[in-house]
Design a protein that fits this description.
With 243 residues, this protein is mainly α. Helix content is 70%, strand content 4%. α1 runs antiparallel to α4 and α2 packs antiparallel against α8.
């Protein structure tokens, strides 16, 4: 399997996508003003709008759900101009602005990763990681996690179903926490047993410490130009933030 996929907006080569995404996110991280953060999000949204990639929007909703904690806590913990009072708690404009900046940057970064890698297969990413010089051990760990995380999740669901069939109802007591401890322990044991079976199967098939992979073609000039354009715009956003 190759390391390219059709993407209207963005590099075609996955190695350039990895470098571009990491560089853009690192540059956007120090942005602290709301205007530049909104410009960063608008740029990513524009790329998504012109792209033909099917976006898994539900993942973004999951991420933004955690950011609700920012809007609950930051306005009351950052000193500044009073926005409103809620009993002894005082919300500030500066706290709300900081929460908005963080939420905007996180949304833009997650959308960028979804744009670049929503259509990616694990094998394509592993080929790109090898081309970038990532150690083979880390590449094998990545492939193993991606391949068997779903199986472990299914095993966890089966164990939970077995507990429910035995009339288990979670509560805030010692019995519940002990039962969850047994659940985690059983899950680890089953994961270790499956890992042993997988290792034996791989050795029987001649596995010698490295997964076979196809050679990757060098990134094209277009890939580097598009990747540089993404990075350059983010640099302009960072420069605007520092003015």
């Amino acid at each position: 399997m190759g390391s390219r996929s059709p993407l209207v907006i963005g590099p075609q080569d996955f190695s350039v996508r990895i470098v571009t995404a990491l560089t853009v996110i690192l540059i956007a991280t120090p942005v602290s003003a709301l205007g530049p953060a909104c410009a960063y999000l608008a740029f990513v949204l524009s790329a998504v709008a012109f792209s033909r990639t099917k976006m898994p929007w539900r993942r973004l909703m999951h991420v933004e759900g955690f950011l609700l904690l920012l809007f609950v806590t930051l306005p009351f913990t950052v000193p500044g101009t009073t926005l409103f009072e809620l009993g002894p708690l005082v919300a500030t404009n500066e706290g709300l602005e900081r929460a908005l900046v963080l939420a905007t940057k996180v949304a833009g970064s997650v959308l960028l990763l979804m744009l670049f890698f929503a259509d990616a297969e694990p094998v394509q990413i592993s080929v790109a990681l090898r081309w970038l010089g990532i150690p083979e051990t880390l590449v094998r760990i990545f492939l193993g996690v991606v391949r068997y995380l779903g199986l472990i999740r299914q095993e966890f669901a089966r164990l939970q179903d077995a507990m429910r069939l035995r009339s288990f109802r979670p509560k805030s007591n010692r019995h519940t926490w002990r039962s969850y401890g047994y659940l985690v322990g059983m899950l680890l044991l089953r994961a270790m047993e499956r890992a042993d079976r997988v290792e034996e199967a791989m050795r029987l098939r001649g596995y010698a410490g490295r997964f076979p992979s196809t050679a990757q073609a060098a990134p094209t000039l277009r890939d580097w130009i598009v990747g540089t354009a993404f990075v350059s715009f983010t640099l302009l956003v960072l420069i605007w933030d520092t003015l």
